[in-house]
């Protein structure tokens, strides 16, 4: 419990700091920060996370099948909440995406308590899940803008999140050796992405709304932090999945939602304040739920 809480504490402090800086930086400045994160910093983070480890073919199949199934289950379960969600489909899509996105940085932190063989599988899971999660998020947000099919396909194909994650996955799968200056530059951009995003979340956050759990927000949190890890645990047990992959799939399913959801919501024009609230709620609640699922996965 303490190790997970301490892993999440810096994120919480950055969100609070962003709230303190809300009126220091003009509104146009925060919009520019969100755009920088969308165009450069988060794509670098996704590229770096996906490219760090070269997966074995067996790991690709097992982890890919598992994380994609978890993501798609989140999509389906959260869509069932459409009747109690925002009337605007764009605002609904901004929040809908939080049900299947995951905190990449936290994923790579919490597995440090596991054996190295299991921890390496989380990098494979992240590398395979990032393109799928971003593809679906861009798809639903594009449709929320009522774009034509051609414009939707074009926006998905040119989305920096998707491009960064796919390039990283290609580097990992084909074991490419990129020049050290390129990887160092990508690493430095990646290190800046999460702090900048969390500051922006804090600037957008309505702290009075943080403890308001309406049926829609409560349902999203229940799906993300309870139903998905429960499904992963039961299915891996029923199928006899080996211990290490099963452990990683359960932990992956239990991760709080990603701060990148706020970046995409901002860029596409969805209600980013509610997305910021959802991210903060998910992160806070995971301080209680994630240690439980880690214990279950290891047991």
What does it look like?
By secondary structure, this protein is mainly α. The chain has 13 helices and no strands. Helix 2 packs across helix 12. The protein is globular and about 50 Å long. The protein starts with a helix and ends with a helix.
In brief:
By secondary structure, the protein is mainly alpha-helical. 78% of the residues lie in helices and 0% in strands. The model has no long low-confidence stretch (mean pLDDT 85).
Q: Describe the global form.
A: globular
State the helix count: 13
Instruction: Give the distance, in angstroms, between the N- and C-terminal Cα atoms.
Output: 15 Å
Total number of strands: 0
Strand content: under 5%
Q: Mean pLDDT, nearest integer?
A: 85
For the CA atoms, what is the radius of gyration? 18 Å
Order of helices and strands: HHHHHHHHHHHHH
Largest sheet: none
**Helix amount, in percent?**
over 70%
Which class best fits the helix and strand makeup? mainly alpha
Oligomer: single chain
Low-pLDDT sequence parts = none
Question: In terms of topology, how is this protein built?
Answer:
Blueprint (H helix, E strand, L loop, with lengths): L1 H19 L6 H25 L5 H23 L9 H8 L7 H7 L5 H29 L4 H9 L2 H14 L6 H25 L10 H25 L3 H12 L5 H9 L3 H27 L1
